[in-house]
Amino acid sequence: MTRQYETVIGLEVHIELATRTKIFCGCSTAFGGAPNTHVCPVCAGMPGSLPVLNRQVVEYAMAVGLATDCRISRLCRFDRKNYFYPDNPQNYQISQLYLPICRSGHIDIETPEGIKSIGIHEIHMEEDAGKLTHDDWAGETNVDFNRSGVPLIEVVSEPDMRSADEVIAYLEKLRLIAQYLGASDCKLQEGSMRADVNLSVRPLGSDSLGTRTEMKNLNSFKAITRAVENERARQIEILESGGTVVQETRRWDDNKERSYPMRSKEDAKDYRYFPEPDLPPVEISGEWIEKVKKKQPELRDEKKKRYESQYGLPSYDADILTSDKRLADLFEETLEYCKNPKKVSNWLMVETIRLAREHGIGIDQVDFSPENLGKLITLQETGRINGTVAKEIFAVIFTDDVDPEKYVEEHGLAAVTDEAALRDAVRQAVEANPQSVADYLAGKKKAMGFLVGQTMRSMGGKADPALVNRLVGEALAQKAAAYSSFCR
Amino acid sequence: MKEILRWPAAELAQKINRREIKAKEAVSAYLEQLYALEPELNSFVTVDEEGAYAQAGRIDELTQSGKNAGPLAGVPVAVKDNLCTRGLRTTCASRMLEDFVPFYEAGAVERLRAAGAIILGKTNMDEFAMGSTSETSAFGPVKNPWDISRVPGGSSGGSCCAVAAAQSLCALGSDTGGSIRQPASYCGVVGLKPTYGTVSRWGLVAYASSLDQIGPIARNVEDCALLLEVISGGDKRDSTCLDRRDVDFGRAFARTSASPQTSPQTSSQASLQACPEDVRGLRIGIVRDYFDEGLDGEVAAAVRRAAQQLRDQGALVEEVDLSLVSYAIPAYYTIACAEASSNLARFDGVKYGYRAGAEKGLHPMYRRTRTEGFGTEVKRRIVLGSFVLSSGYYEAYYEKALRVKAMIVAAFDKAFSRFDLLLGPVAPTTAPLLGQTGDDPLKMYLGDIYTVSVNLAGLPAISLPCGLDSRGLPIGVQLVGPRFGEKTILQAARAYEKACGGFALSPMTERAEKKGGMKV
Ligand SMILES: [Zn+2]
Q: Of A86, A269, B213, B330, whose CB is crowded by the most CB atoms within 10 A?
């Protein structure tokens, strides 16, 4: 490579909104459901049906816009994007071209060089399409309109990103914002967050933009990283060999780790956009914006600060706990049942993340009752169970969400706190291991640990370790006293 | 013609509510008339005899148990076939929807049924309401009951024909650029296009969403007002439908209960309220621009006589220039076709309606389905509309048309600052002969010159019979009101109707009885 190149990246991110009903009708947005069971004349494109705007969609779009410092349009309007495809029942999509709801915002990301502001060109609202399923056996294609009319926002960034790392940082931040607002669950795998990458390269130092391509079908952050790096290399190779990059849409194949052209600009579709005549323009009053602002929940940065100041958590803990809305929610909900923030934080940061990794699930899929974790911590704090048992029980809570109190009872896991019984066990351990006692008296303090372990084993691991420690210490002290008087 | 067929809607409903006659008798009398004339007129696509008798049975049960069955109890209504009717085929007179049976009902039809009306059937029309003659129907042309060698006008030709021939007592039509008013004038009946947003468009198969409006077609002004009152009002399923409170149009004629006026406050208001048929002091502007060389001399004379009649009754009639008249047609066809090209995209053979068989591949299936399913005029408008929206042409055509629309609104606003109503012709001529218009679409489009600007401005307007030409064909006069000015229009219309001694049905209605009702 003779020259150095800079990568210029802009993103178009589709986020599925978490409304109960669709954007233009009252049908459910619930996932699953037999094909074409969440449909009505509107979302199936029946003749004579008309769209009615779901105001919650406007509020979510506004919330994301406010969280990203966008200007909210006081008057926004829907437009029709016309194209024929069977997953699109009307053969037009109701979207926003001329007057989108939000404009000119930014998301600040952390880079090795410091904070960098990525511009947001606009955010607009639109409807999702249905789903086609191809039955190769029958040679048929079937269409399911359950997803047709599910509300989306499209967040269009400025071409401000320069690397895959910046792309991922931007997406992580955007995802957290949408999740914190409750506007979306933003699951890439399930398609509730979809990113198309617009990428071009240019010689380092150049001001003009190179010809860009648009990459689709990116289903994970890893795929995005690979696709960005691959596309950068592909474009540089073309330029270096004297060719020109073709402006086109490409489809990423993550298994083959390469992309394929979908359509080039020559056969680019003319969407014949025009204002949607069935929906009057949406007037957004100052009061409405204020109302949404007031409802705006605490976002990540504020939450992080609060965890440090209110709960006295180390910055490291606060950072991890707020890295996922689910984790932060679990933290706050568990505190309702157990007033020890650091303990709760430890269980979430260490055991929960470890178990999630072990089970190969995302933190957002972790699903146990905060009440059960709270009870578990209390059981341990009051000495009813010891740490080892607590970890065992937590693994069961993690998978089956059991009530730890009942579980301890049913499995006889309560710590033995009967001092007389424990004293007896200690006495037996001391008597059965004279060598260890001798070692201890000779100054080998480690020998005490052995005796504690022997006592614990004889109690089936259920003894309160602190108590056992104290009793073994007392027994050894007695032996030491006897030994010194004998020597004297 | 049987006596029962002569009663106006309010009278028929009253007799049925008072159990003087049964709804079933009304239905059978109208069906007899319908069937007798249908072979010559072809005004219906589907007759719902079974449904009509079933509804009549329900009405009679209600009245038998002493309940009031509604203001339209037992009143037969014919519904244009672009209004969805639950369980009853809705074709838009297109091969594309030949077998389409909706599982939902148009808002206006729901309201009709709730008021006790009986849906006799679905009326023939221009395919997807695109046309001015009712000849573009996939089910054959409708004939004019005054002269069956002529067209009834369009696109609500079947509805207007059915009313003029007493096949139905009243009817619903839809008006996008004159589709109620022009056939009403050709057929000599009363047809009203309400203010945009007055009647819910839910269930109306869209032609041009921003211009379409459902309206009543009747024999007389009172029935027209009564029907309008029933079908008007808010509907949450149509975001463009207004929640109007002033829809007591039928009651506007009840002398004792003067309704509060919401239309523009004028000096004539007080007298109108005191006596709703009084036009004294009402300021009426004759649109001078409409009396151009394109207007037939006999039509011009009849319209001027109507204006003189109102002047004689005390209205202040003056001439007014509306300007922009020549821009209305291109602006209208640009906007209407653009919206139509998008609205009709859903008819693709995938989900419902016609699908061309034996095609491999999606695009060949789309192409053949739409080639075979749509008629020539529909395809012409889809192509025109797609063109004006294409990138590179959007600004030159569609955007410019929107600017013209805004200027037309302003021109009307200016006119209504001086006048309560505007008066002019409905169409340049009386009904043309069948088969004369099809090969010259431009000529057909120009025929809409006096009606389209009302749709562009979203205003209410009525077409009233104002005499016959030398060939015995009806001529219509149009009264246009400001937004929400339906009451003023209806009151002036009623005054004019009274001065004329009422409007006549087509001569065919008398002939039918002589022949004797023959079931087909
Ligand atoms: Zn739906």
A: B213
The answer, yes or no, to whether ipTM is higher than 0.90 is: yes
- Per-domain boundaries in chain A: 5-288, 298-403, 419-487
At the topology level of CATH, where does B2-251+270-326+406-513 sit? Amidase signature (AS) enzymes (3.90.1300)
CB B380 within 8 A of CB B129: no
CA distances from A165 to A224, A327, B59 (A): 10, 23, 73
What is the average pLDDT across B79-85? 98
- 């993340």: which residue's tokens? A353
Q: How confident is the model at residue B274 (pLDDT cuts 50, 70, 90)?
A: very low
Is the Cβ pair B366, A84 closer than 8 Å?
Answer: yes
Q: Could you report the per-residue pLDDT of A434-462, keeping only the tens digit for each?
A: 888 888 877 787 888 888 888 877 777 77
CA distances from B298 to A13, A404, B18, B305, B467 (A): 65, 96, 45, 11, 10
How far is residue A193's CA from residue B103's CA, in Å, rounded to a whole number?
35
Q: Where are the domains positioned within chain B?
A: 2-251+270-326+406-513
Per residue in A373-413, pLDDT (tens digit) is 988 888 888 878 888 888 888 888 888 888 888 888 887 77
Please write the tens of the pLDDT for every residue from A282-293: 999 999 999 999
B143 touches B249 (CB < 8 A):
no
pLDDT of residue B332: 96
**Confidence at residue A206, expressed as pLDDT on a 0 to 100 scale:** 87
Q: Taking Cα atoms as reference points, which of B172, B173, B198, B211 lies closest to residue B337? A: B211
Rounded CA separation B378/A392 (Å): 73
| CATH code for the domain defined by A419-487 | 1.10.10.410
**Three-state DSSP state, B224:** helix
Query: What per-residue string of b and e applies to B435-463 under the rule 16 or more CB within 10 Å gives b?
Result: eebbeebeebbebbbbbbbbbbbbbbbbb
Distance, in Å, from the CA atom of B512 to the CA atom of B302, rounded to the nearest integer, reads 29
Question: Which pLDDT belongs to residue A433?
Answer: 81
State the DSSP H helix or E strand holding residue A391, giving kind and residue range, or none if neither.
helix A387-400
CA-wise closest residue to B179 among B461, B487, B490, B380: B461
Residue-wise over A447-475: b if at least 16 C-beta within 10 A, else e? bbebbbebbbebbeebbbbebbbebbeeb
Q: Which residues of B touch A (CB under 8 A)?
A: 83-84, 90, 92, 97, 100, 102-104, 106, 201-206, 208-210, 236-240, 338-339, 341-342, 345-348, 350-352, 362, 366, 386, 389-391, 394, 398
* B212-269 per-position pLDDT tens digit: 999 999 999 999 999 999 999 999 999 999 999 889 998 766 543 333 444 444 434 4
Which candidate from A48, A80, A280 shows the least CB-CB separation from B202?
Answer: A48
β-strands B461-468, B474-480 pairing: antiparallel
Q: Say yes or no for a CB contact (<8 Å) between B398 and A274.
A: yes
B191 three-state secondary structure: strand
Among A52, A84, A279, select the one facing B348 at the smallest CB separation.
A84
Q: Residue B177 — φ and ψ, nearest 5°?
A: -145, 15
pLDDT value of position B427: 96
Helical residues (DSSP H) of A296-351, grouped into ranges: 300-311, 315-321, 325-335, 341-346
**Close Cβ partners of A291 (under 8 Å, ≥ 6 residues apart):** none
Separation of CA A211 from chain center: 34
Percent residues over pLDDT 90 in chain B: 85
Answer yes or no: is pLDDT of A463 > 90: no
Task: From A141, A131, A148, A126, select the one nearest A41 (Cα to Cα).
Answer: A148
Residue with tokens 């007080």: B270
**Nearest CA among A90, A184, A87 for reference residue A129:** A87
Structure tokens at B119: 């849906």
CB of A116 closer than 8 Å to CB of A58: no
